[in-house]
Amino acid sequence: MSTERTLVLVKPDGVARGLTGTILSRIEAKGYSIADLKQVYATRDLLEQHYAEHAGKPFFEPLVEFMLSGPIVAAVFEGQRVIEGFRSLAGATEPTTAAPGTIRGDLGRDWGVKVQQNLVHGSDSTESAEREIGVWFA
Ligand code: DAT
Ligand code: MG
User: Fold this and answer.
1) What is the pLDDT of residue 126?
2) Is 30 annotated among the ligand-binding residues?
């Protein structure tokens, strides 16, 4: 199995709560390496590219507004099966019910908007990883 790369975002809620170090440290502790890292303020254009698959869904506009609400930490992590490994580590989309032991399950909850503030993004396939890395690290 060859080395893979994935895009990880610490979303504005994770950065605002001071969880960036904790989150990156949990990913490193599992054995994945940071290949690239930066803090960024997203733009609407960048988010429309990143979330292209969700365009037109009812949660799209609130999701974009949330992602514009503060700085984001974008990282490229690498390692064998890192895409699957990180999504497993991140946990289910909804933080209230994400399994304990996962980043979302241990560190997240509903703060008034059911799903949105779930701390992290991780690419879901090799194709989306390469596309998303191109969007955030152009
Ligand atoms: P994931 O981030 O687990 O890959 P996704 O790609 O389906 O989930 O959705 C992207 C983000 O959009 C997700 O992290 C939070 C938000 N989202 C998804 N489904 C939602 C819903 N039903 N209501 C509100 N926000 C939602
Ligand atoms: Mg997704």
Assistant:
1) 98
2) no
